[in-house]
Amino acid sequence: MSVKYKLIITILISLFTAGQLSAQVLGGTRKDGDQESMFPDFKTVYLQKLIDTADKYYPQIKLRAEQIKIAQTSYSQSKAAWFEGLSVTPSYVYNPSGSINLFNSTGASTNFFNGYQIAFSLSLSSFITRPYITRNAKHNIVVAQMEEETAKLTLRTQVSTLYVQFLQTQSSLRVAAKTASDTKLYLEQVKHDFSLSSPTATTTVYNSALTAYNSSALAKVAAEGAFLTAKLSLEVLVGRRLEDIK
């Protein structure tokens, strides 16, 4: 077996026995001394578009916005309820001029309370507790706003994490596809040499090349599955297909 074949086989077996597409270097991948990096694919502007889209369509954010509206409505109702402790009772007193007034010795009627009357009453307990209720209603607005901000920060973190995972699986898929292509070409070359009964194309070489090709094909399928999973997970969180976000 030539030194060339021994070197190629050693590299392939070492690569696939480890069960990795390539060694991870600085968040990217390194293959045959050249770095396959995910950094060029990372776009801050596009990530911000993903976050903005998620803010618009993610149900949890919509829920927080509605809770703020409910808190604001409750606060307005609480302020208006200041008048609940005050009651106004209108009435009409009929006191004819010929009626006898016991407090008038002359027998003539003195009609101090004749006609329409309005009575006012104030609930002291309501007047005391209402400021605290109104203050709590105002605090509920602040709490709802803070919960919304927390939900947005959490969503931003989740979108950023899934975006990085998406880029990582995309980069890994490129490496896996390139490796599968290279091992296929190598296997075809070995088959060609084997058919010509080349002294370098032994059964051991052929079996090693076939094993390397099968491993690379399986690695490619696994990389494709990881890529699709990452893509779908990101799309579910964002609420739109990535192809529709420009």
From TrEMBL:
Keyword Signal (UniProt): yes
Q: Which domain of life is it from?
A: Bacteria
Signal keyword on record: yes
The leader peptide range reads 1-23
Write out the GO MF terms.
Answer: efflux transmembrane transporter activity
Keyword tags: Signal
In terms of SUPFAM superfamilies, this protein maps to: Outer membrane efflux proteins (OEP) (SSF56954)
Q: What is this protein called?
A: TolC family protein
Q: Which organism is it from?
A: Mucilaginibacter myungsuensis
